[in-house]
């Protein structure tokens, strides 16, 4: 059997009906579980309960509390609705009996129709971007090209990204890959444009995350991820983003609100 890709390995679970358990990679006990990972796994277990051929259409997740790498994650899936065109799932992820994430995910049977998205000039051309390494939260799984001025531990949008290895030709696994990587930029983007990012700026955490899957995603191809700050008040910042393929076609839309507790 061919070896599984890194994302397929992270999606391996034990199952009992609509209850699932995933053993997380044992990293440092003090490290906070990456939100993109738990969101990808939640979409993966939701998709495992889909029997009608529907593909991921959207997800809306709330990060209820921080997770850990030194404990397994248990998932329960509620089958909210199974229709001919759409199926809806509610996923609850828990560690040690405490909820860490709630997700609603929708799946849609592909059907013919109009195909349009607006043209968008790149905020960062590929040739103007510089390779970047040592990005936190599984950044080693991707090739990244960011603005040459980006010296942070994050990948500051806009940036270009692709998986370093081929991902299985499976729409669900590839949607999970997109979900995973979509959490690599929103938190710093939720700051007001006038506030420079610093390591000592304050406490930050993702609060919720939404994705709309528009078109098939090819993880090994270069994609441009653009995010903009849309609002900031009450210690909460909202970022909205778009993921484009190399031809400029819109692949997915993203939004996330992040908590930023900044001393004033």
UniProtKB/TrEMBL annotation:
Instruction: Report domain Acyl-CoA thioesterase-like N-terminal HotDog positions.
Output: 30-108
Q: Which UniProt keywords apply?
A: Hydrolase
| Top-level taxon | Bacteria
Family annotation (SUPFAM superfamilies): Thioesterase/thiol ester dehydrase-isomerase
Q: Where in this chain does the record put each Acyl-CoA thioesterase-like C-terminal domain?
A: 119-259
Q: Which GO terms describe its biological process?
A: acyl-CoA metabolic process; fatty acid catabolic process
Q: Does the keyword Hydrolase apply?
A: yes
Keyword Hydrolase tagged:
yes
Molecular function as annotated in GO: fatty acyl-CoA hydrolase activity
InterPro entries per record: ACOT8-like_C, Acyl-CoA_hotdog, Acyl_CoA_thio, HotDog_dom_sf, TesB_ACOT8-like_N
- Which family does this protein fall into? Belongs to the C/M/P thioester hydrolase family.
Q: PANTHER family in the record, alphabetically? A: ACYL-COA THIOESTERASE (PTHR11066), ACYL-COENZYME A THIOESTERASE 8 (PTHR11066:SF34)
What name is this protein filed under? Acyl-CoA thioesterase II
Which organism does this record belong to? Answer: Mycolicibacterium peregrinum (Mycobacterium peregrinum)
């Amino acid at each position: 059997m061919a070896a599984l890709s890194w994302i397929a390995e992270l999606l391996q679970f034990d199952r009992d009906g609509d209850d699932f358990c995933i053993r997380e990679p044992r990293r440092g006990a003090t490290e906070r579980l990456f939100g993109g990972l738990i969101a990808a796994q939640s979409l993966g277990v939701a998709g495992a309960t889909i029997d009608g051929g529907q593909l991921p259409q959207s997800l809306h997740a709330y990060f209820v509390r921080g997770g850990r790498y030194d404990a397994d994650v248990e998932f329960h899936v509620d089958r909210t609705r199974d229709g001919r065109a759409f199926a809806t799932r509610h996923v609850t992820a828990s560690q040690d009996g405490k909820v860490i994430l709630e997700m609603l995910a929708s799946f849609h049977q592909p059907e013919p129709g109009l195909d349009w998205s607006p043209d968008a000039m790149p905020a960062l051309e590929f040739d103007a971007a510089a390779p970047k390494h040592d990005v936190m939260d599984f950044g080693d799984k991707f090739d990244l090209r960011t603005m040459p001025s980006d010296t942070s531990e994050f990948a500051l949008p806009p940036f270009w990204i692709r998986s370093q290895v081929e991902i299985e030709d499976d729409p669900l696994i590839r949607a999970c890959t997109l979900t995973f990587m979509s959490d690599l930029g929103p938190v710093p983007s939720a700051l007001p444009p006038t506030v420079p990012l610093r390591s000592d700026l304050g406490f930050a955490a993702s609060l919720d995350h939404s994705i709309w899957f528009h078109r098939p995603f090819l993880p090994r191809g270069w994609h441009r991820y653009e995010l903009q700050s849309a609002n900031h008040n009450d210690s909460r910042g909202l970022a909205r983003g778009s993921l484009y393929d190399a031809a400029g076609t819109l692949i997915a839309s993203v939004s996330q609100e992040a908590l930023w507790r900044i001393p004033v």
